[in-house]
Specification:
By secondary structure, this protein is an alpha+beta fold. It has helices at residues 2-10, 32-51, 67-73, 75-78, 140-145, 147-154, 199-217, 264-273, 299-310, 345-362, 373-383, 393-397, 420-427, and strands at 14-16, 28-30, 56-58, 64-66, 80-85, 92-94, 115-118, 121-125, 131-135, 160-169, 184-194, 224-228, 240-248, 251-262, 279-281, 286-288, 291-298, 311-316, 319-324, 335-339, 365-367, 387-391, 402-406, 412-415. The protein has 13 helices and 24 strands. The two termini are 28 Å apart. It binds glycyl-adenosine-5'-phosphate. Glycyl-adenosine-5'-phosphate binds at residues 138, 140, 170, 172, 181-182, 185, 187, 189, 254-257, 294, 296-298, 300-301.
Length: 428
């Protein structure tokens, strides 16, 4: 874990939020490679769960929502973690993650009674500050409050899914373990609206699709395990939950969740808002409130488990090297182009020409003429660039093309310049 955290900082993937002011606990910022990786993961997720599916529709809802939404959804009363506070130093701990519930592990003081701590972030709105809104604790409510809008404008038949990727905020008692438990994070999730009698079929269908996603994005699936969450541990809205857990360096913990939310949310919102949120089945001439299957995937935990799965060390040319074996589809840089030597203008010129050609095609392409070629390979290995193209004397003198090096094996092959784009395209 320390190696991954240190690489992330050193190579501009992840920085502590507001670091120059000492950092804000539970927040992390992405640097240039982190932002690129984050974006590629979201794009691949959208492709996997939205555009490649037949009946999935994206929305993008506000992160600020009124108190009424959270009262109806049950979050103001039920979205809590058990907390204990030290009577002496006033440090607060998650009661369910504290071994000794009597003695403070920081100062040795006496711990108080266990209390339920609500994780919602209130925000005072308007010039008088009297209106309370909340930063959304889950993005799902955006899908529920827009259910009727989408139904009325798109005239959809069941089953269909409403999905979004966006920020969620939780006032976690004890943020920890890098990107694992934070106070602000992106969620990628959808509500799949169904007829109630079909819930088991669609629960299984989306479970299978989540496994395919795990493999596609490059999370080591040997480290992922399903957990049937017992009734007493399920969220207040769920009738069945299966968690996907990952073997992190700090233990086996939740990666993703899949829940059968019944028609709890739509029913609650219909009764609290007075708006009819039912669906009319034209064929069966039946009116009912649809039920929901909800696959929910934390984007930060995806970043973390992708990084942990991709991190590798091996020995190459007698040296230990570190590399990130990202799937090419999510690698921040798809390909790097080098002139063999910096001080040979004909090599630099040709390399620049190839760089421009590849950049036009793939966007995230790097050019590097700094230091010896071995160092340049190592730099790209460390940020997970799957291919490095080198222009050497043969390229110019014999017109025999360029070398292309594979990140994982270090093997190079010579290919013609005209084949480069199709070669790289076939691998990403
Ligand atoms: N709409 C359902 C929902 O939000 P959840 O289990 O509370 O369910 C969904 O959260 C996912 O969000 C989790 O499976 C995890 O991937 C991620 N997640 C939850 N809390 C998090 C936190 N504090 N920091 C980072 N990711 C978190």
């Amino acid at each position: 874990m320390e190696k991954v955290v240190s690489l992330c900082k050193r190579r501009g993937f992840v920085f502590q939020g507001s670091e120059i002011y000492g950092g804000l606990s539970g927040t992390w910022d992405y640097g240039p490679y982190g932002a690129e990786l984050a974006h590629n993961i979201k794009e691949l997720w959208w492709k996997h769960f939205v555009t490649e599916q037949e009946n999935m529709f994206g929305i993008s809802s506000s992160t600020l929502m009124p108190e009424a939404v959270w009262k109806a959804s049950g979050h103001l009363s039920g979205f809590t973690d058990p907390m204990i506070e030290c009577k002496k130093c006033h440090h607060r701990f998650r009661a369910d993650q504290t071994e000794d519930k009597k003695k403070c592990s920081d100062c040795g003081g006496e711990l108080g009674e266990e209390k339920a701590f609500n994780m919602m972030f209130p925000v005072s709105m308007g010039s008088s500050g009297e209106d309370v809104a909340y930063l959304r604790g889950e993005i799902a409510q955006g899908m529920f409050v827009n259910f009727k809008n989408v139904l009325d404008t798109m005239h959809l038949d069941l089953p269909f899914g409403l999905t979004q990727i966006g920020k969620a905020y939780r006032n976690e008692i004890a943020p920890r373990d890098f990107l694992f438990r934070v106070r602000e994070f992106d969620l990628m999730e959808f509500e799949y609206f169904i007829r109630p009698e079909e819930w088991e079929k669609y629960f299984e269908m989306w479970k299978g699709e989540m496994w395919r996603w795990i493999e596609r994005v490059g999370i080591n699936k040997d480290l992922v395990h399903e957990l049937e969450v017992p009734a007493e541990d399920r969220a207040h809205y769920s009738k069945r939950t299966v968690d996907f857990e990952f073997d992190y360096p700090f233990g086996r913990k939740e990666l993703y969740g899949l829940a059968y939310r019944t028609n709890y949310d739509l029913k609650q919102h219909a009764s609290a808002s007075g708006v009819d949120l039912s669906y009319f089945d034209e064929d069966k001439k039946e009116k009912f409130i649809p039920h929901v299957i909800e696959p929910s995937m934390g984007h930060g935990r995806t970043m973390l488990t992708v990084l942990l799965s991709a991190y590798k060390e091996d020995e190459m040319n007698g040296e230990v090297r570190t590399y990130l074996a990202f799937k090419p589809s999510i690698a921040p840089i798809k390909c790097a182009v080098f002139p063999l030597l910096k001080n040979k203008p004909e090599l630099v010129e040709k390399a620049r020409e190839i760089y421009k050609m590849l950049k036009k095609e793939f966007g995230s392409v790097a050019f590097d003429d700094n230091g010896n070629i071995g160092k340049r390979y190592r730099r790209q290995d460390e940020i997970g660039t799957p291919f490095c193209v080198t222009v050497d004397f043969e390229t110019i003198e014999k017109n025999t093309g360029v070398t292309i090096r594979d990140r994982d094996t270090g093997k190079q092959e010579r290919i013609s310049i005209s084949e480069l784009i199709s070669y790289i395209r076939s691998k990403i």
